[in-house]
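Researcher: Next sequence.
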Amino acid sequence: MGLRGYIIKRIFYSIILVFLVITLNFIIFMLMPGNPIMNMANPARFRTTEQYEEQLRRFGLLDPPLEKYAKYVQNMLTFQFGYSYVTYDLVANEISERLMNTLVLSISCEVLAITLGIVLGVISAYKRGGIFDSASVLFSIATNALPVFWVGMLLLLVFSFNLQWFPFGYTYPPEWAFPGRWPTNILVEIQYRLWHLFLPTAALVIILMGSYVLITRASMLEVLSEDYLVTARAKGVSERKILFKHAFKNASLPIITQVAIAFGFTLSGAIVTETVFNYPGMGLWIWRSIEKFDYPALQAIFFIVALCVIIANFLADLAYGIVDPRIKYE
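Model: Next structure:
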């Protein structure tokens, strides 16, 4: 089977998988504990019984299961996602308000963690058995075992509370929310946003980097003794070129898989990190939606995350053949 046939086959399987995800997502939230109707039944939210019943009809909570499922599938496939039980606004609008903050945080920390982890992993494999190798492995195992909320709270204690070098959270100073306080200079705005972004990014990089160090080191150790590298050294090829061009290319398949999965979960945000730093992204929104039984919001983000993971794995499979021509599409 050629590349075109493989892509068509994978697209067909992915479409089936998307519908299975949609159905499973619907069933899970139908069976979840908690009652969103009782959450809406707070008398303070509605003046009359008619208003309460109108909201129930608006959200489809009085519809039979099959009708609920049909509306749910339509909402998922059109990316409208219905209305939030909490704000009564479209879930798509809620996502758009927070999506950019999550993308900035998640992509920046993933890129930094992947870059640092790969570089350190390659060097560690090259200097295997030495002090640098032992230190990097020990650091990676230790940081992998640390809970991210503890790392975040420690960074806040040291750099925000004691040293007062960085703010405690948010994406910009709270006083900017008042009329006339927003800066007119775009460079000043970028500077303050990066200042607020530093600590949550540092917490995630510390946690994520170790896994990339370990998997890169393990993959590199399998190929460093190959004959073609000995031949390259005999031909006078520089050691840096041997490591990062020849050896790393053949050792990169497991790393591609891990990177694809990591970026697949990018849109879900970092729930614990965003909660610790009160960062207004998708992760903090998910946590608050869980607290308030906001099922349309949770269904939407779970569907988007599953869709991103499916797409990321599909792209990773295509990348395998580009990186390693020995892989045949079947």
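Model: The two ends are 5 Å apart (CA to CA). The chain has a mean pLDDT of 79.
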